[in-house]
Design a protein that fits this description.
The complex is a heterodimer. By secondary structure, chain A is α+β, with helices and mostly antiparallel strands. Chain A has 8 helices and 18 strands. Chain A has 2 domains: 145 residues, Proliferating Cell Nuclear Antigen (Box), CATH 3.70.10.10; 110 residues, Proliferating Cell Nuclear Antigen. Chain A has a 9-stranded antiparallel beta sheet with strand order 6-2-3-4-18-17-16-10-14. In chain A, strands 5-1-7-8-9 form a 5-stranded antiparallel beta sheet, covered by helices on one side. Chain A has a 4-stranded antiparallel beta sheet with strand order 13-12-11-15. Classes of the chains: A alpha+beta, B alpha+beta. Chain A: It is found in: Nucleus.
Chain lengths: 318, 310
């Protein structure tokens, strides 16, 4: 069976963990799969992966107008050994990465998936050996990234013009964006403090407006922070990408999604997701630590973030 | 040319719940080959491409009253649509009659039309009876029947080494995921009882190794490869010792073949035919209530091997 020449070499030096810039072990493979699936809006998609002493960041961009980010903190790993002097950054096919991790998720029992970087050909090496002595391994080719991902950020503490934000149940947000497919094209998101309301409006093949009233739909809202009226337009396909691929399991958890808009119209959509464990892993963790469950709950949360640049306001031809 | 038989309860169950659904998953039609002693289902054996499947069932495992006669040494073969056959079997079982009979008939819709062959299922109950006619192809010629027989004879040519497959449900879950990565699957088997499944594309090489599986036939004569040696190196060493085979197969064929779990096999083995002619999957069934192999039922899948690209 032909394998990339690097495979055997990488395997043989596996004993010396320090030769790798990163060696980590992850129990909740399905959690990583769910998070990465959320930022995969195209069939074939490339991502940039950045490793640091704090964790793993995976970024996906489109036309510099839409950016998706998954940040896996080191606390989510069972073991995280980082040895690099300079933060390694590499490009990888997100589609391939998700497909491979999915394969590991199907075989993972109570055993942790081991990730190592880099192999001799700078590949990402994944390996999982379970109790029944079944062993699954993968070597994923990486590439030198063409560009550095733009560092979008919204300053929550801006004293002059603080950003407006609201948080709702993820499933409600997804439903609203799906309904807005009918008018398509550009979508207006408007927040008003008096009365407190969030309005989504689309114009195109007909008009459609969806209002979330903060006062009357209290079960829908988790938070609402708005001290002034704000209104910006966004391309529908970008908005849709922020919720289209959230796995059903995340929607079921209903952790919520937070939308923040700064004074320039930069939109941040943040989904809070629980990193699920298999029943066997939960049992194992409970057995190994009496207060394991409490520690688990607090550390098993991750974020999926999207940044969307505003679109130009459509001109009314009438 | 005559054929008439009455199903046993177990026989109906074997066909309706197990073998016909499994065959339906790999193709729309199959050949039914009836001899004095056996009922044989053959899928795709007269074509060279695609998965071939052969199920051989002793007549006593299916029927308790079996009459067959033909000028071709009491052999009859025809092609049947599997979904129609399954539907007829299911509704016959649902009727819960006392007796289910099947016979070969020729009928014509009207006087002007040519008569057509049918397999007629007759389910008789206390108050009612149901007749179902399943259309079949005209009986196969002597030459075609000889081809079927040749395919059947080839079933006896087993690979020198057969390696037991791991739990089919877990294997199916794994292969379903691997299917998303690539269309070609490398299957490696060693005489030490290792099974390697690997997908290699331009972006990734991903695979799984199962160790310490049961081995039938020739076992590694030389000292077994050290257990601590890792996956690909272990396979490479076994290949150098002439104790392993690696073939490439179509991923879809492999996935489809794993639908064999519908037949509820008690043991599954996999081997590479001599000269890498095909990847063979062989299934064994235990006699009810025992752990002894039931020789009256057998099933084999043959997966075509893709050309090696090295």
């Amino acid at each position: 069976m032909r394998r990339p020449s690097s495979g055997a070499a990488a395997s043989s030096r596996g004993g010396g963990a320090s030769e790798f810039e990163l060696v980590c072990r992850l129990e909740c493979v399905q959690g990583l799969v769910d998070a990465l699936t959320s930022i995969k809006w195209k069939k074939q998609q490339d991502a940039i992966c950045e490793l640091s002493e704090h964790g793993m960041l995976i970024v996906v961009e489109e036309s510099s107008c839409l950016q998706g980010k998954v940040y896996f903190r080191k606390e989510l790993f069972k073991e995280y050994q980082y040895h690099a002097n300079v933060r390694p950054r590499f490009g990888v096919s997100l589609t391939t990465l998700v497909d491979c991790l999915n394969t590991f998720a199907s075989t993972a029992g109570t055993t942790a998936l081991e990730l190592r970087y880099p192999g001799t050909d700078m590949e990402l090496i994944l390996r999982l050996t379970d109790e029944s002595r079944m062993c699954t391994d993968a070597e994923i080719r990486t590439r030198i990234p063409d560009s550095v991902p733009y560092d979008f950020s919204i300053d929550d503490d801006d004293a002059n013009e603080p950003p407006v934000s609201f948080a709702v149940k993820s499933s409600a947000l997804k439903d609203a964006f799906e309904d807005l497919e009918w008018p398509g094209s550009s979508i207006q998101i408007a927040l008003n403090p008096e009365p407190p309301v969030v309005t989504f409006r689309g114009e195109g093949h007909g008009d459609l407006q969806i209002d979330f009233f903060y006062d009357s739909q209290t079960d829908l809202f988790i938070a609402f922070q708005c001290d002034r009226a704000a209104s910006f337009w966004y391309k529908y396909k970008f908005l849709r990408a922020t919720t289209a691929n959230i796995p059903g399991s995340i929607l079921k958890d209903n952790r919520g999604s937070k939308l923040t808009i700064d004074n320039r119209g930069l939109l941040k959509v943040q989904h809070i997701i629980s990193i699920r464990q298999t029943a066997a892993q939960v049992q194992q963790n409970q057995d190994s630590s009496l207060d394991g469950r409490m520690t688990d709950q607090s550390s098993r949360i991750s974020y999926v973030e999207f940044y969307v640049l505003p679109d130009e306001e459509p001109v009314d031809v009438n | 040319m005559k054929f008439k038989a009455a199903f046993t309860d177990r026989g109906v169950n074997i066909l309706e719940k197990r073998f016909v659904p499994a065959f339906e998953k790999i193709g729309k039609t199959c050949h039914v080959y009836l001899t004095r002693d056996h009922v044989i289902l053959l899928h795709n054996v007269l074509n060279s491409d695609g998965v071939q499947a052969i199920a051989q069932l002793a007549k006593d495992a299916i029927f308790d009253d079996y009459r067959i006669s033909s000028q071709n040494n009491d052999c009859i073969a025809f092609q049947v649509d599997l979904s129609l056959l399954l539907r007829a079997l299911r509704s016959s079982v649902a009727m819960d009659g006392d007796k289910l009979q099947v016979k070969l008939v020729k009928k014509r819709a009207s006087l002007t039309e040519k008569s057509m062959p049918f397999l007629t299922f007759e389910s008789k109950g206390y108050r009612s009876a149901i007749l179902q006619d399943v259309p079949i192809s005209p009986p196969l010629s002597r030459a075609d029947v000889a081809d079927l027989q040749a395919a059947l004879d080839a079933v006896q040519d087993l690979p020198p080494t057969l390696v037991g497959l791991p739990d089919l449900v877990a294997l199916q879950a794994l292969v379903e995921r691997l299917k998303a990565v690539g269309e070609v699957l490398d299957v490696g088997l060693t005489q030490a009882g290792d099974l390697f499944l690997r997908v290699i594309t331009a972006f990734v090489s991903i695979g799984t190794q199962f160790r310490h599986l049961r081995v039938l036939g020739i076992r590694g004569a030389a000292a077994p490869v050290d257990d601590t040696v890792e996956g690909s190196a272990r396979l490479q060493r076994a290949l150098e010792q002439g104790e392993a085979s690696v073939v490439k197969v179509n991923m879809k064929h492999f996935v489809r073949s794993l639908q064999c779990h519908l037949t509820k096999p008690d043991a599954c083995y996999c081997g590479v035919a001599p000269g890498n002619a095909c990847l063979l999957m062989m299934f064994q069934y235990f006699a009810p209530g025992t752990r002894l192999t039931d020789d009256s039922i057998s099933l084999q899948y043959r997966l075509p091997v893709l050309e090696q690209d090295d």
